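Workshop exercise sheet. Pairs work together: one partner reads the sequence aloud, the other fills in the structure field after running the prediction. Swap roles for the next sheet.
Pair: D.N. / O.F.
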Amino acid sequence: MRSQRVERSVRAAGERQLVSIHIERKALHAPACRRLGLGFVLKSLACVTALSLIAEPLPRAFIIDTVHPALGAVILAAALTLFPASVVLYSLLGALVLNAMIAFNHRRDRYITT
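Structure field:
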């Protein structure tokens, strides 16, 4: 029973978020339409809507608990064959910094609705 209640709450929050994203972006539509054209605005609306709709069910459909270290090594080796080593090292450094920031700032109780 609790999981259904939590899921309904999360779904409602996602729908509210989709609506609020469109309301917040509404102020940008008129200048964007004048400068970049109606086609750009419509494509932007379609992308934001699609991303919002995909983001809600994604955690239930795509779960990553662990990544085998060999997979990381294969990805790193593939990157080194495609890009200069300096670019791969900067990317690796960026990933380490981003993960450190997430680990430092993540609090589990922020994301649980009751």
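Discussion prompt: Residues 64-114 form one domain. What would you look at next?
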